[in-house]
């Protein structure tokens, strides 16, 4: 039976040193999208390569060594549908390389790393990776594996009976660990911006990107360990960037001098929700609803046209929270009201809501 642990013993870690299989499980009530599955499998592979590099030597920047690619490249061994479970195996040891087989120890260190991040054990992460550059590259490469902020799917990583769910709070914990390596000065603050990527520079030093936010161009400086992340970005795309920022006297962002989190966003892709959760309440829906999202003039706009919901916020999270709150208000003050107190339009909205919502649950 799978077991979730907050701290692995030395004996348990030793048992993983001979293991060659890792399983990635993705579960979604509305089905697992192919692009989500592909992204998570690719993120798992890059994470293992980065972990293997810390054992082989290096692991700060640049391409992966041949022995890392030889030993740590995962091969699909089994695939179970429903919720999608993909089991992947390390390749068998090869006599072509004189170096030791890096695969099993890299897989064991990957387990220890995820275990430490899940427990928010910053000191332990630093013990595993004393070198700042190696630590930054590994920890940052976990970000694409963790579920997105508004993802409805759940994800689990399993190795030989050890099992770790990556829930909605995992990414927040991860970003907090990345922040812990950054010391802020009095004239600096952690800030998050959303805007259009107009500049990418990766030659001649640590990478630099430029983001246009409400007609202002803000330069964002990344560590050299982020070069691989930057190469996946597309100029002209919408990106979210968080990091240590210098501020003007008026409190505006002058530039982001050290990025802690950067990702491309695609607000034109609608979300499919099978439940609506807010505060300690959950409404389970009989069929998925489609939530449209877009970014306009510095604001995130989210909407569900059939129920007449249109909200905005200065961040995607704020807009999504507003949409969830309004949905619950409609459920409380329209769907539960007597017809005699409602207009004809409101009665029709009430009927749509009561047809759509299957049940309400409390969230512990």
Structural account:
The chain contains ten helices and 15 strands. With 364 residues, it is α+β, with helices and mostly antiparallel strands. Residues 1-6 have low confidence and may be disordered. It has three domains: 10-179, no CATH class; 188-265, Beta Barrel (OB fold (Dihydrolipoamide Acetyltransferase, E2P)); 271-362, 2-Layer Sandwich (Double Stranded RNA Binding Domain). α2 (34-56) crosses α3 (66-72) and α2 (34-56) crosses α4 (103-118). It is globular and about 75 Å long.
Notable traits:
single chain; 364 residues; alpha+beta; OB fold (Dihydrolipoamide Acetyltransferase, E2P); Double Stranded RNA Binding Domain; 3 domains; 5-stranded antiparallel β-sheet; 10 helices; 32% helix; disordered N terminus
Number of domains: 3
Biggest sheet layout = 5 strands, antiparallel
Q: Helical segment tally? A: 10
Spell out the helices and strands N to C. Answer: HEHHEEHHHEEHEEEHEEEEEEHHE
- Strands side by side in the biggest sheet: 2-3-1-4-5
Cα Rg = 23 Å
